[in-house]
Amino acid sequence: MTKLTLLIISASALLVAYVWMTHPFEVPDENAHYASLHFLANEGRMPTVSDKDNLSIEEMQVEKVFGIVEGRNKYSYHPEFRVEQVEGQIGKYETYIHELNVSENRESYATHQAALYPPLYYWLALPYYQIAQKGDILTRLFAARFASVVFTLFTILVAYYLGRQYFKEQLSALTVAFMTL
Predict the structure, then answer these.
(1) 117-175, pLDDT tens digit by residue?
(2) Alpha-carbon torsion 23, 29, 31, 37, what sign?
(3) Do 4 and 161 meet the contact criterion of CB atoms below 8 Å apart?
(4) How far is CA 51 from CA 55, 160, 170, in A?
(5) CA 25 to CA 71: how far, in whole Å?
(6) 55 bridge partner residues
(7) What's residue 58's pLDDT?
(8) Could you give the CA distance from residue 111 to residue 34 in angstroms, rounded to a whole number?
Protein backbone atom coordinates (compact mmCIF):
# COMPACT_ATOMS: atom_id res chain seq x y z
CA MET A 1 0.00 0.00 0.00
CA THR A 2 1.44 3.35 -1.01
CA LYS A 3 1.73 6.28 1.39
CA LEU A 4 -0.76 8.24 -0.69
CA THR A 5 -3.28 5.40 -0.48
CA LEU A 6 -2.77 5.24 3.27
CA LEU A 7 -3.28 9.01 3.50
CA ILE A 8 -6.53 8.82 1.49
CA ILE A 9 -7.86 5.92 3.57
CA SER A 10 -6.93 7.66 6.83
CA ALA A 11 -8.38 10.98 5.71
CA SER A 12 -11.58 9.25 4.57
CA ALA A 13 -12.00 7.57 7.93
CA LEU A 14 -11.30 10.81 9.79
CA LEU A 15 -13.67 12.86 7.64
CA VAL A 16 -16.52 10.34 7.79
CA ALA A 17 -16.13 10.07 11.58
CA TYR A 18 -16.22 13.86 11.87
CA VAL A 19 -19.32 14.10 9.66
CA TRP A 20 -21.08 11.33 11.54
CA MET A 21 -20.24 12.44 15.09
CA THR A 22 -20.75 16.20 14.78
CA HIS A 23 -24.13 17.30 16.14
CA PRO A 24 -26.50 18.51 13.39
CA PHE A 25 -26.13 22.22 12.69
CA GLU A 26 -23.24 22.57 15.14
CA VAL A 27 -20.62 23.51 12.59
CA PRO A 28 -20.49 27.31 12.32
CA ASP A 29 -23.13 28.56 9.90
CA GLU A 30 -24.11 25.01 8.90
CA ASN A 31 -27.78 25.86 9.37
CA ALA A 32 -27.43 28.86 7.00
CA HIS A 33 -25.53 26.79 4.42
CA TYR A 34 -28.12 24.02 4.67
CA ALA A 35 -30.90 26.59 4.21
CA SER A 36 -29.20 27.80 1.02
CA LEU A 37 -28.84 24.27 -0.32
CA HIS A 38 -32.43 23.43 0.57
CA PHE A 39 -33.67 26.61 -1.12
CA LEU A 40 -31.64 25.79 -4.24
CA ALA A 41 -33.07 22.26 -4.36
CA ASN A 42 -36.65 23.50 -3.96
CA GLU A 43 -36.59 26.69 -6.00
CA GLY A 44 -33.93 25.89 -8.62
CA ARG A 45 -31.98 29.04 -7.78
CA MET A 46 -29.86 30.49 -5.02
CA PRO A 47 -31.51 32.69 -2.38
CA THR A 48 -30.94 36.42 -2.69
CA VAL A 49 -31.15 39.41 -0.40
CA SER A 50 -34.59 40.19 -1.81
CA ASP A 51 -35.96 36.80 -0.71
CA LYS A 52 -37.73 37.76 2.49
CA ASP A 53 -38.12 34.18 3.68
CA ASN A 54 -35.73 31.35 2.80
CA LEU A 55 -35.59 29.11 5.89
CA SER A 56 -38.00 26.19 5.62
CA ILE A 57 -40.52 25.63 8.38
CA GLU A 58 -39.04 22.16 8.80
CA GLU A 59 -35.55 23.52 9.48
CA MET A 60 -36.89 26.26 11.76
CA GLN A 61 -38.69 23.66 13.91
CA VAL A 62 -35.60 21.43 14.05
CA GLU A 63 -33.50 24.42 15.08
CA LYS A 64 -35.95 25.03 17.92
CA VAL A 65 -35.62 21.40 19.04
CA PHE A 66 -31.82 21.70 19.02
CA GLY A 67 -31.90 25.10 20.68
CA ILE A 68 -29.95 26.82 17.92
CA VAL A 69 -32.40 29.45 16.74
CA GLU A 70 -30.58 32.70 15.92
CA GLY A 71 -27.13 31.17 16.41
CA ARG A 72 -27.50 30.19 20.06
CA ASN A 73 -26.69 26.49 20.21
CA LYS A 74 -27.50 25.61 23.80
CA TYR A 75 -26.23 22.03 23.45
CA SER A 76 -22.83 22.84 21.99
CA TYR A 77 -21.62 26.01 23.62
CA HIS A 78 -23.26 26.01 27.05
CA PRO A 79 -22.33 23.13 29.38
CA GLU A 80 -25.39 23.77 31.56
CA PHE A 81 -27.67 22.66 28.71
CA ARG A 82 -27.64 19.04 27.59
CA VAL A 83 -29.94 16.85 25.53
CA GLU A 84 -32.11 14.79 27.85
CA GLN A 85 -31.07 11.14 27.96
CA VAL A 86 -33.73 8.57 27.11
CA GLU A 87 -33.83 4.79 27.19
CA GLY A 88 -33.32 2.92 23.92
CA GLN A 89 -31.86 3.97 20.60
CA ILE A 90 -34.52 6.45 19.50
CA GLY A 91 -33.88 9.99 20.67
CA LYS A 92 -36.53 12.03 22.45
CA TYR A 93 -37.24 14.21 19.40
CA GLU A 94 -36.43 11.85 16.52
CA THR A 95 -40.04 10.93 15.82
CA TYR A 96 -41.07 14.60 15.87
CA ILE A 97 -38.21 15.53 13.52
CA HIS A 98 -39.16 12.71 11.16
CA GLU A 99 -42.82 13.82 11.20
CA LEU A 100 -41.79 17.33 10.10
CA ASN A 101 -40.75 15.82 6.75
CA VAL A 102 -43.87 16.75 4.81
CA SER A 103 -43.96 18.84 1.66
CA GLU A 104 -45.82 21.69 3.39
CA ASN A 105 -42.94 22.14 5.86
CA ARG A 106 -40.20 21.61 3.28
CA GLU A 107 -41.68 23.95 0.68
CA SER A 108 -42.87 26.79 2.95
CA TYR A 109 -40.48 29.38 4.29
CA ALA A 110 -40.70 31.21 7.59
CA THR A 111 -37.81 33.64 7.91
CA HIS A 112 -34.54 34.77 6.33
CA GLN A 113 -31.47 32.75 7.30
CA ALA A 114 -29.84 31.31 4.19
CA ALA A 115 -26.22 32.16 3.49
CA LEU A 116 -25.66 34.49 0.56
CA TYR A 117 -22.35 33.16 -0.69
CA PRO A 118 -21.19 32.41 -4.24
CA PRO A 119 -23.08 29.40 -5.58
CA LEU A 120 -20.38 26.95 -6.74
CA TYR A 121 -20.28 24.86 -3.55
CA TYR A 122 -24.06 24.63 -3.42
CA TRP A 123 -24.36 23.55 -7.05
CA LEU A 124 -21.70 20.88 -6.48
CA ALA A 125 -23.39 19.68 -3.28
CA LEU A 126 -26.85 19.64 -4.85
CA PRO A 127 -26.65 16.10 -6.36
CA TYR A 128 -25.74 14.66 -2.94
CA TYR A 129 -28.67 16.49 -1.37
CA GLN A 130 -31.03 15.36 -4.12
CA ILE A 131 -30.14 11.70 -3.57
CA ALA A 132 -31.62 12.02 -0.08
CA GLN A 133 -34.27 14.62 -0.90
CA LYS A 134 -37.18 12.38 0.16
CA GLY A 135 -35.55 11.63 3.51
CA ASP A 136 -35.97 13.60 6.71
CA ILE A 137 -33.90 16.70 7.39
CA LEU A 138 -31.12 14.80 9.18
CA THR A 139 -30.73 12.37 6.27
CA ARG A 140 -30.52 15.30 3.84
CA LEU A 141 -28.05 17.11 6.09
CA PHE A 142 -25.72 14.12 6.30
CA ALA A 143 -25.96 13.58 2.53
CA ALA A 144 -24.91 17.22 2.03
CA ARG A 145 -22.07 16.75 4.52
CA PHE A 146 -20.86 13.75 2.52
CA ALA A 147 -20.36 16.09 -0.43
CA SER A 148 -17.80 17.94 1.70
CA VAL A 149 -15.99 14.66 2.36
CA VAL A 150 -15.69 14.04 -1.38
CA PHE A 151 -14.54 17.64 -2.02
CA THR A 152 -11.93 17.40 0.73
CA LEU A 153 -10.56 14.10 -0.61
CA PHE A 154 -10.33 15.66 -4.07
CA THR A 155 -8.48 18.64 -2.57
CA ILE A 156 -6.04 16.27 -0.86
CA LEU A 157 -5.28 14.58 -4.19
CA VAL A 158 -4.80 17.91 -5.98
CA ALA A 159 -2.55 19.18 -3.18
CA TYR A 160 -0.50 15.97 -3.33
CA TYR A 161 0.02 16.17 -7.09
CA LEU A 162 0.88 19.88 -6.93
CA GLY A 163 3.29 19.11 -4.07
CA ARG A 164 4.92 16.39 -6.17
CA GLN A 165 5.38 18.84 -9.03
CA TYR A 166 6.80 21.56 -6.82
CA PHE A 167 8.89 19.59 -4.28
CA LYS A 168 9.68 16.40 -6.24
CA GLU A 169 9.78 14.47 -2.92
CA GLN A 170 6.91 12.26 -1.86
CA LEU A 171 7.19 13.15 1.84
CA SER A 172 6.89 16.88 1.07
CA ALA A 173 3.94 16.22 -1.23
CA LEU A 174 2.25 14.10 1.45
CA THR A 175 2.83 16.90 3.98
CA VAL A 176 1.18 19.43 1.68
CA ALA A 177 -1.73 17.04 1.09
CA PHE A 178 -2.13 16.39 4.82
CA MET A 179 -2.24 20.12 5.51
CA THR A 180 -5.54 20.36 3.57
CA LEU A 181 -7.28 18.60 6.44
Answers:
(1) 899 999 999 999 999 999 999 999 999 999 999 999 999 989 888 888 888 788 888 88
(2) negative
(3) no
(4) 10, 41, 49
(5) 10
(6) 111
(7) 92
(8) 14
